[in-house]
Design a protein that fits this description.
The complex is a heterodimer of chains A (158) and B (147). Chain A is 37% helix and 16% strand. Chain A is of the alpha/beta class. Chain A has a five-stranded parallel beta sheet with strand order 2-1-3-4-5, sandwiched between helices. Chain B is of the alpha/beta class. Chain B has five helices and five strands. In chain B, α3 links the parallel β3 and β4. In chain B, 38% of the residues are buried. Classes of the chains: A alpha/beta (158), B alpha/beta (147). Chains A and B meet through α4, β5 and α5 of A and α4, β5 and α5 of B.
């Protein structure tokens, strides 16, 4: 129906098993998605700000963010990107093992679009990824992609 | 595993047809939902701030917000509540007929948790409400309710 361009997902996740499961679940989906993976918070910000080796990274349509990450944790990433004028509109799905009320409340307070606790069990995990995929990519209207070329015009701030 | 208490939803919607359809769909679901309805933006903020007639209002777990509403439009309501330290954690699902890129972009920038366009056609509308319900009420962890 809509454009044929794949939906770009940035997954910020340091657990290779969760990455693998997510990849598999997305491959089974009817929707064409492209999963980009970074393993810590610093890489995530570099990717989003298109710094260093990520100079040609494409702006994701959705971010799946773990909270407990090496170097810079997910809460800091969330705070930074939701304060950035150009990045704040990208929906962020927090996907964390945490079930703590404090983490949930704080994530929403920092601007997370939704908070999902990683279920235990492979099948349950795959179901969660499928639900994210079908809700965010078929029911929800995602923010429009920047016009062709816009992503290269981000001011160099380093 | 699931909480037994009902989920409270504040629906900010001036179209009685859409209110009715949302109510019917929600009542047909397995989840117990209390739907509170206000018809314009001023009432929405009064409800959320427990002002005037709404002193005993229940703070909702989730807000469904139409954009084009009388009194104060949905964009302003969104902006005010996402700037309010206590109300900002309540997830807001924008549910509107608007399909414009500008409305979509602006809503996300103002802090909407997700943006859904109302489909035309009853069956499609019901499906959309069901999808919102199953995603937000069963999959997502909602914040602990503010007293």
């Amino acid at each position: 129906m809509e454009n044929m361009a794949p939906l770009e997902i940035l997954m910020v996740e340091d657990d290779p098993a969760d990455v693998e499961l997510t990849e598999e679940a997305l491959q089974d989906s009817k929707l064409l998605t492209r999963l980009h993976v970074v393993e810590d918070g610093i890489e995530a910000m570099e990717y989003l700000l298109m710094k260093g080796k990520y100079a040609h990274a494409c702006r994701p349509d959705l971010i799946i963010l773990d909270l407990n990450l090496p170097r810079k944790n997910g809460r800091e990433v969330l705070q930074e990107l939701k304060r950035d004028k150009s990045l704040k509109s990208i929906p962020v799905v927090v996907l964390s093992t945490s079930n703590a009320e404090e983490d949930i409340l704080r994530s929403y307070n920092l601007g997370a679009n939704c908070f999902i606790t990683k279920p235990v069990g492979l099948e349950q995990f795959a179901k969660v990824v499928e639900s994210i995929d079908s809700f965010w990519f078929t029911v929800v209207k995602l923010p429009p992609r920047p016009k062709e070329g816009d992503h290269t015009t981000r001011p160099e701030d380093d | 595993m699931k909480t037994l208490r009902p989920i409270d939803v504040l629906l900010v919607e001036d179209d009685p047809g859409d209110v009715e359809l949302t109510r019917e769909t929600i009542e047909a679901s397995k989840i117990v939902v209390n739907l509170h309805v206000v018809e314009d933006g001023l009432q929405a903020l009064a409800y959320l701030r427990k002002q005037a007639n709404y002193a005993d209002a229940v703070t909702p777990d989730l807000i469904f917000l139409d954009l084009n509403i009388p009194g104060k439009d949905g964009r302003q309501v969104l902006e005010e509540l996402k700037h309010d330290e206590t109300l900002r954690t309540i997830p807001v699902v924008v549910l509107t007929t608007s399909d414009s890129d500008e409305d979509i972009m602006r809503s996300y920038s103002l802090g909407a948790n997700c943006y859904v366009t109302k489909p035309t056609g009853l069956d499609q509308f019901i499906k959309v409400v069901e999808s919102i319900e199953s995603f937000w009420f069963t999959l997502v962890k909602l914040p602990t309710r503010i007293p």
